[in-house]
Amino acid sequence: MNIPRKAIGASALSAALLIAGLLATGFVARAHAETPVQAEAAAQADEQTIHWTRAAVAAPANAPRGFAEYHNACTVCHGPMPERPGTRALAAKYQGTIPALLEERTDLQPEFIRMIVRNGISLMPMFRKTELSDAQLDAIVAYLTRPRS
Ligand code: HEC
To answer: Is residue 29 predicted with pLDDT exceeding 70?
Structure first.
């Protein structure tokens, strides 16, 4: 069959436009799909062990749930005195009436911990869900409210 060049050119062009149009629509649809994008970010955050310690802390055998998450995210400021700003601030706030180390407290309520971690307070920054996922925060809450004998 002898198809004129001009006709091939025109149909190739319209096919290209059609494909470009489909891609553009798909792209726009994906760009607006905020929930899957956020879900993916949260899933990635869960896979990573964030740590603000010099090296990531791994939970020793038989460590309570949340040990590693707490130490990786919180002890940079809430570790033992004297140089930790969180411990220092809480020592000044409570004047020895309760432990300055969060880990030693038995009065912490889950909702109080969540509110402080997601909003920050004074020197303490807020933790975004991309930095500390809800699953990691749940583990930290479990650790700080663990039953003690
Ligand atoms: C950059 C330092 C820093 C980091 C990191 C940090 N904190 Fe804090 N945190 C502070 C400081 C400072 C205070 C005291 C604020 C004040 O003066 O009331 C505080 C206070 C708190 C309090 C309030 C205690 C009370 O009785 O008033 C809680 C709960 C807390 N932090 C939990 C956490 C947890 C859980 C993490 C880890 C996810 C964490 N913090 C990480 C600095 C930090």
So the answer is: no
Q: For the chain, what are the domain ranges?
A: 1-32, 46-144
* Residue nearest atom 25 in ligand 1 by C-alpha distance: 90
* Cα dihedral 93, 122, 147, 107 sign: positive
Residues within 6 Å of ligand 1 by CB: 73-74, 76-78, 85-86, 89-90, 93, 102, 113, 116-117, 121-125, 127, 132, 140
Q: What is the pLDDT of residues 93-112, one digit of tens each?
A: 999 999 999 999 999 999 99
Produce one character per residue of 54-91: b if its CB has 16 or more CB atoms within 10 Å, e if not: eeebebeeeeeebbbbbbbbbbebbbeeeebebbbbbb
Q: Is the pTM of this model over 0.90?
A: no
- Please report, as a single letter, which amino acid is at residue 45: A
69 CA: nearest ligand 1 atom: 38
CATH code, 46-144: 1.10.760.10
Question: What average pLDDT does this structure show over 72-83?
Answer: 91
Q: Give the separation between CA 110 and CA 11, rounded to whole angstroms.
A: 65
Structure tokens at 51: 């740590």
